[in-house]
Structure formats: C-alpha cells, structure tokens
Design brief:
With 189 residues, the protein is mainly α. Helix content is 79%, strand content 0%. It is built from ten helices and no strands. It is globular, with a radius of gyration of 19 Å.
Length: 189
C-alpha cells in the first residue's frame, strides 16, 4: 500500500468483484493524490480548461473501471500509470472530435466557455436535466445512475433486485425513453 490506498492487485480484484468493493476501489482511485493534478496539468498544457480536465478525469475513471472488469487491464503497468494513459488518450479523442465539429479556434472556445451567457445556459441545462430526473422517480433515477456509471446489466439486476439482466436491460430502455419524453416535453413547453 502507498499511503492509505489499496495496492493495485487489491484494487483490480475489488473492481472485478463488484458491488461495494468496486465502489470503494473506484473511490480510492478518485481520491488518489497526484492523479487529478497530473491529468489537470496535461489537459491545461494541451489546450483544455479546468472543466475539460474534470470531465476527462471522470470519463477516464469510467473507462478504467470497464477495462478492468472486462479484463483488458493486464497489470503490465501500475493502475495509476494506466489511468493517466487513458486520460491522455481520451483528451486526444475529445480534441479530435471538437475540431471536426467546430470552426472555432481553441482559444475562442475557451473564451466562449467563460462568457456569462454560456455559463447561464449550461446551468439551465443542468437544472432541466435534474428536474427531469426528479420527475422520473426513484427507481428509474437509481437505475439510470448505475447505467451512466457503466455498471453491467448483471450488476444492475443484482443491485435493483430484478430477476435477471434482461429485465434490467428492458427497464433501462424504458427509463431512458421516459427521461427523453420528459425532456422533450419540458423543452417544448
């Protein structure tokens, strides 16, 4: 163990085990000293903002989780090194997608993101989404949270006490459709 953190072996084992052990392992990674700073520094040095770094960090955590659960992480490097590699790769992908879909230069994008109007719109979007999630009800909201965190249908079925993964998949589909309907109604009204 380094500090109060799990060893790489314990961490990967807990993620593969699932449930509360997985959640504790992901929290351990999330709170590791230096990881967030390393990702932040890289993103800032490569045309991103602090918000970009936060988004990339969270996405990298989801990708790492899935990679470990699916057996793609083979332990040839430290988990933290692998995580930073995922974050860097993801940032390159994000930048490539942005350049494909916009004509703004990176500096123009950053200055736009700091504009008060853009911040107000982003806050309104978050509020609309949160209100829509609240209208869904507890079960759908919980299921979609697990779905967003990239839990497998087997894990969702266990956590939500569904008969099997197929039932969880049908419920996830139903809940996503309900959320889309609520959002559509709220935006049109």
């Amino acid at each position: 163990m380094s500090g109060n953190h799990l060893t790489d072996e314990a961490l990967t084992g807990a993620i593969r085990k699932g449930g509360q052990a997985r959640e504790a392992a992901l929290k351990d990674i999330y709170l590791r000293a230096g990881l967030r700073e390393t990702v932040l520094k890289y993103i800032l040095e490569h045309g991103g903002s602090r918000q970009d770094a936060q988004d990339v960090f969270q996405e990298a955590l989801l990708i790492l989780d899935k990679s470990i659960r699916e057996g793609r992480f083979e332990g040839r490097s430290m988990v933290s090194t692998y995580f930073v590699g995922i974050a860097k790769w993801h940032w390159v992908t994000v930048r490539r997608q942005r350049s494909r879909f916009t004509t703004y230069e990176a500096t123009e994008q950053e200055s736009l993101a700091d504009e008060p109007d853009v911040q107000v719109i982003q806050e309104e979007e978050r509020t609309i989404l949160q209100n829509a999630l609240n209208q869904l009800g507890g079960r759908c909201k919980e299921l979609l949270t697990y779905y967003q965190l990239d839990y497998s249908m087997q894990e969702i079925a266990q956590k939500m006490q569904y008969e099997n993964p197929d039932v969880a998949k049908k419920e996830a589909y139903r809940c996503r459709n309900r959320l889309r309907d609520i959002l559509t109604t709220n935006i049109i009204d």
